[in-house]
Amino acid sequence: MLVLEAAGLSKHFQAKRGIFAGAVDGISFTIESGRTLGVVGESGCGKTTTAKLVLGLEQPTGGNIRFEGRDLQRLDTAGRRHYRKSVQAVFQDPYASLNPRMRVSAIIAEPLVTNERLPASEVHQRILDLLDLVGLPARSANLFPHEFSGGQRQRIAIARALALSPKLVVLDEPVSALDVSIRAQILNLLHDLQAELGLSYLFIAHDLAAVAHMSHTIVVMYLGKIVESGDARTLARTPKHPYTEALFSAALPSHPDERREEIILSGEVPSPLDPPSGCRFHPRCPHAMARCGVEEPMLADVEGRLVACHLYDADERRPPIKVAAGAAPVS
Amino acid sequence: MSSSTPSFASYEPTRQGLPVSTRPLLEIENLSTHYVSARGTRVVRAVDEVSLRINAGETLGIVGESGSGKSTLALTILRVLPPAARIVEGRMLFEGEDLVQKSDAEMRQVRGKRIAMILQDPMASLNPLFTIGDQVAEMIRVHEGAGRATAWSRARDLLKAVRIPAPETRLTQYPHEMSGGMRQRIVGAIGISCEPRLLIADEPTTSLDLTIQAQYLNLLRELQRAHALALIFITHNLGIVAKMCDQLAVMYAGRVVESGPVAQIFNAPIHPYTKALLNSIPRMSDSPKRLTAIDGQPPDLAALPPGCAFALRCPRAFDRCHNEAPPKFVSNDGRTARCWLSDVGIGADAVRLRSGAV
Q1: pLDDT single digits (tens) B162-211
Q2: What letter would DSSP give residue B294?
Q3: What ipTM score was computed for the predicted complex, to two decimals?
Q4: What is the CATH classification number for the domain harbouring A121?
Q5: How far apart are CA B10 and CA B17, in angstroms?
Q6: CB contact under 8 A, A209 and B215
Q7: CA-based nearest distance B287→chain A, Å
Q8: Is residue B323 domain-resident?
Q9: Helix ranges restricted to H, B232-323
Q10: What is the mean pLDDT of residues B60-68?
């Protein structure tokens, strides 16, 4: 069942008079119930703007988001309140996302108090249940955030996100601020909670291995556009778009024997204020052809996933290219 | 592409370890750096009885979590410690000279010239009020007494060496006019400007995007080959170690709990902490649905338990671990581990180690 559906979603920011930055430009994706959608890409690709649009913190300038079949733009006040309760977030830095002057009980209770009229005793019981759910002792309720380590703080943030029994949780870099030995604890917790509560996740992270591990589907973004999307493991193992391929080849190996020649992209991500014509990746693409600079490739089905690249166009009359390191572009 | 076979071949010997007769470039023996509170009542053993060595042209990875003492170790090598820190014991033999015994004036001749450092945040290591040219040229002027014109022309060559496009224009620009990746390359250029023998990189790529990180790591490797640089990588990221390093030292609560060649440690870690760390990382290829997490959290350095600092989190801890800190055990092939399981007769499945001089 679809929980969330984004169609042609765009968010343009006005940078100067008449100049717009397309932070997110016509992207479409779906999130199914109990599944995880991973979003990967580098700074400026639009991951965080996408998360903000889903959370309703930004209004789209184009396209729409449907939640359980209903268009967010057309919701009445009650519907909007229901949506806000159903979609929660866990942010990167649990040192910044928890108010240092509030006790843990108040932090976790806040969404309950603002959204639901519950007697105090019931709120207290919910706090204890939530602490138990995220693996914290009941006595944590009376303590302040500074009395906890990073991993424990992230558990508190997760408990707060779960207080209203949401359907979808946006996880924006949920483990990258944590110590290496703690990350697996939190990833496991998130995985268990998903299985137990049937949660859907929108998982955003830099660490490709973590995204591949957590996600069912992955969306790869570059300069506000989706360049490839598909089944997480297949995509991680056999990337098709030259950008995906370069990105995954740049991921660090997990063993010294895996040291491989990565595809080193020249240059850096261009400014979204003045994106390249045609395919936005073409100035850095090792396989760019003349038409890439002119004609923008559309997302099209390639062996069961979506890829936006002219290399896979049928009328290029060329077998799908294994874009291996050092392979010369076929002319 | 960039690494042609010959350069790899010439690189191979360091991976196997140099002949014993070769003196290491830097040899750290039994080094301890403690932070002492104003009244002397609280002592934090940030670096405790650390011994390490690195040969010319080699890459040593120092891995640890926050608070493991890895950054304090780097600051100790350069002797740029905050006032509360004391080097309480040990030696640091760099090209045969003990850095611990050097005066501040003598250290200024070492810092930047013979040992250079790259820090995590390039925005914090560059002065926003000076041009790139001034900042890259400064080291050359200070250490080599070069005039402004000479130093600037050297600076231009350095920017070219770290692949900065249009170096002429960039020299006259300010740090805020560059991207993060470019700034980090400029910091790299400053690092190699006086052709140091040893470059210490403290989390040099954490603030960079993946493809930019790959560019930068490759650049460091090329610079290393071109200048026979020894590199120390301080990181929490085992992926960087797997990609870049020959030797590895794993730090936990101020101590080196395991050290040895990277491939050997990844294939057969001795210390339970190393083992757990390697198992807890999600991998691209095979991913079981649950990761093997390490329970608990790193200890407070000001209140370390009497025994092994990892004992409370260790799945294989026994009585002795909680009461007595394990000494360093050294194997015949130069691997070390601070774990009682490595004591002869206890760890049947552990690599056989004999007790070193402790």
Answers
A1: 888 889 999 999 999 988 888 988 999 999 999 999 999 998 888 788 88
A2: P
A3: 0.80
A4: 3.40.50.300
A5: 13
A6: no
A7: 6
A8: yes
A9: 238-244, 262-267, 272-279, 319-323
A10: 91
